[in-house]
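Render this sequence as a predicted structure.
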Amino acid sequence: MKRRLFRYGRPGLCMSLFLLLVVGSGLPAQTGQLNVLKPAAADRDLVIQTSEITSNALFFPVDVAGTRLEVLAVKAPDGTIRTAFNTCQVCYGSGRGYYRQEGTVLVCQNCGNRYRMGQVEIRAGGCNPVPIFPQDKKVTQSTITIPLAYLTDMKVIFSRWRRG
């Protein structure tokens, strides 16, 4: 007796759905109209062009020694450019403690905390994106540089990132 590998539907349809899920799972979670994912940097300083930053969050993936990190940059309502790691200070261990932009706020995908753009990089601790303070980056009129050494120090908070 011949066993059917695909009980429901046609094999081609099932394979197509499987591939869609596999390929789709590697895509960034920022799929809203307001979110933009920039090309990944690997094992080097992250350099962000300030001219690209607007009130819509930009997400910058960085690969550090095989660990994927993500930095977000946004122009706050007061016109200053703010940076943070795209992981929640409380929820990062869950694997779902990352943010998506919804309108004018960032929303933690684990706890649902809503975080205004003007709050990014203001304080450490609590359920908010992990700030990248001025002493941890170099800012010029045209660029923001986050050194590889600092990225390496912070990669521990991304060990379970997007795996929850």
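Summary. The chain has one domain: 28-158. The longest helix spans residues 11-25.
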